[in-house]
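SAMPLE LOG
Freezer: B-3
Tube label: C17
Construct: single chain, 172 aa
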Amino acid sequence: MMRYLQHFFISSCLFVWVGGLSANPQLPLRGSAQVNAAWFFSICEMRLYTEPSTVAENVLDGRPLSLEIEYQRSISADTLIRYGNKGLDESFGHEVIKSFQAEIDLMNQAYVDVEKGDVYRLDFSPESGITLSLNGSKVITINDGKFALFYLAIWLGETRHARSTKQKIFRS
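STRUCTURE (predicted):
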């Protein structure tokens, strides 16, 4: 059970951002969620920036958004990659994942170990795809809107874990 909880909480907290310029600077904070493991130790805080009319059911419909994840403990890049890949496996079939494998590999190569207080940020816009930043510094951009929405489903999709996080974000 504890291993299951660790998977959920670490995969929920793959990305965060602190400071710097957003690719979507006009977007207001829509909500946030504290993600804990075993209900008592903090893994990260997730913050979603998007249009005020966005609701959980249409968050991945192609409108611009930014997702920040601020880590409250150290996590290795290998762990981030492993749990991100597991989240994709739970969300999509093998053929869909295979169709985006080159982009997934590029994103995975961009990860580094995070420490308490580090923030990964994912900025999405239909025109420019997805940009990953760490602590305000751009790490990688993949100019493919379809891949961006596919990848954001790790945190904002329809798996049980993603739905739970979305509910917390949209209730805050």
